[in-house]
């Protein structure tokens, strides 16, 4: 497919280096935005050769992970693979973005790249993060930095509430969109 490089976050970021982790969190969305292709392996998607129906897609744990937001919103093209590495979906396929939108609640126009994430209200973008999970409480806020186009110091151990308050403060510094207060 003509690709010269591959970036795998779990291999390319030294988790023992605070500065590397901080940079990856603050800038990771740029990797997805610059990528020609993002590959997503769904180990819990049943093996098959055709595109799964909406309910089958909905069952994957991938959609509940907070870090999947950046991949979904910023990657120009995403190919989804099942437990046996069969291609099961491609965001460049006609109609696939609207199927994903129904499954995950992110606007279809954003998924199809017809609309920039920056055109979406703060409240709407916040809703995309609602109900998602992460092994580290602070990541529920940190994973949204790219979605809002902001940077902030990463402080694991500060707790979920402190991280969210700092996220809101940073958003307020960069926007006049008062829908933030809906959260």
TrEMBL record:
Residues 163-183 form the DUF8212 domain. InterPro entries: DUF8212. It holds the Pfam family DUF8212. PANTHER family: HET DOMAIN-CONTAINING PROTEIN. This is DUF8212 domain-containing protein. It comes from Glomerella acutata (Colletotrichum acutatum).
């Amino acid at each position: 497919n003509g690709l010269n490089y591959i970036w795998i976050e779990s291999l390319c970021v030294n988790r023992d280096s605070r500065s590397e982790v901080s940079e990856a969190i603050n800038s990771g969305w740029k990797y997805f935005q610059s990528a020609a292709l993002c590959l997503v392996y769904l180990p819990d998607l049943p093996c098959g050769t055709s595109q799964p129906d909406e309910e089958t897609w909905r069952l994957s744990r991938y959609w509940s992970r907070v870090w999947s937001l950046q991949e979904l919103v910023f990657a120009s093209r995403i190919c989804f693979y099942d437990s046996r590495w069969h291609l099961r979906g491609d965001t460049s396929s006609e109609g696939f973005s609207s199927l994903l939108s129904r499954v995950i609640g992110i606007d279809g126009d954003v998924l199809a790249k017809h609309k920039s994430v920056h055109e979406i209200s703060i409240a709407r973008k916040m809703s995309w993060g609602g109900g998602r999970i992460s092994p580290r409480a602070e990541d529920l806020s940190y994973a949204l930095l790219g979605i809002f186009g902001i940077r902030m110091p990463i402080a694991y151990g500060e707790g979920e509430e402190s991280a969210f308050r700092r996220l809101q403060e940073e958003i307020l510094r960069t926007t006049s969109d008062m829908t933030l207060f809906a959260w």
